């Protein structure tokens, strides 16, 4: 039996639906999905196994012009996805424009010209017309002539099965990179962090969600329950007050929502305690970023 395996890396501008596509292809909820841009901060692997194949999907942060050190690290994760891709999924959506990140797109063009299989994904087609879609397909075919164009709706699962089959066909022959029962390269604590951060993105406005980092300090799995202590770090005392809310009401709301999703993720009751602390200017501090896992080395 011939076995295929490869790295399928998902890249593109912020808020085009990369995480939704990743979760649809993997069949598991591994990446944060919100309507806000820049929700994915790390490069997250999702592994799909079959008898004769292994697909290693990689969700990456949206490509952007960095304004502080954290965003520089996020851009490094995105660029690293161009190095080891066997199949590259460049995701766009109807409102996307080439000039948002022309330099990154040029790198994708060079990869395609050099022989890397590139699939140009036009996502969110349920939000546009047939006429507009036809013009988009024609436009992107001129921009990336070596790429195969796939119009899809990851949210509605339209076209996802066909894309999955095309990716499987494009994989190179080779042994699996990971054990066949492995779903991701991230530990359990990482997904607790991400679920809590997602609830912060959903419950707070303006700069607050982008100024916080979550760290699990204690994760104890007992026979009937998982006990978790997690700290939400922010950059200012004023942000700490907003995160906690009047009489702790805002933090309780985040904790309640996060606990429900964590219980669903682990299929087990969870006791979750949240704390808020200030880590001044952590987004611009190289050593703190390394501590929080924003390092490729």
Could you tell me the CATH topology label of the largest domain. Answer: Rossmann fold
What number of domains? 2
Specify Rg, calculated over alpha carbons: 20 Å
Treating each run of at least 4 consecutive H or I residues as one helix, how many helices? 9
Description:
The chain has 297 residues and is α/β, with parallel strands linked by helices. It has two domains: 167 residues, P-loop containing nucleotide triphosphate hydrolases (Rossmann fold, 3-Layer(aba) Sandwich), CATH 3.40.50.300; 104 residues, K homology (KH) domain (GMP Synthetase, Chain A, domain 3), CATH 3.30.300.20. The protein has nine helices and nine strands. The chain has a six-stranded mixed beta sheet, sandwiched between helices. The two termini are 36 Å apart. About 2% of the residues have low confidence.
Descriptive tags:
Rossmann fold; 2 domains; 9 helices; GMP Synthetase, Chain A, domain 3; alpha/beta; 6-stranded mixed β-sheet
Write the layout of secondary structure elements.
Blueprint lengths: L3 E9 L5 H9 L17 E7 L2 E7 L9 H12 L6 E6 L9 H12 L3 E6 L7 H14 L4 E4 L8 H11 L17 H16 L9 E9 L4 E9 L2 H8 L4 H18 L3 E9 L7 H6 L6
Parallel strand pairs: 1-3, 1-4, 4-5, 5-6, 8-9
Antiparallel strand pairs: 2-3, 7-8
Helix pairs in contact: 6-8
Summary, kept brief:
A hairpin with a 2-residue loop joins strand 2 and strand 3 (53-59). Helices cover 36% and strands 22% of the residues. The protein is of the alpha/beta class.
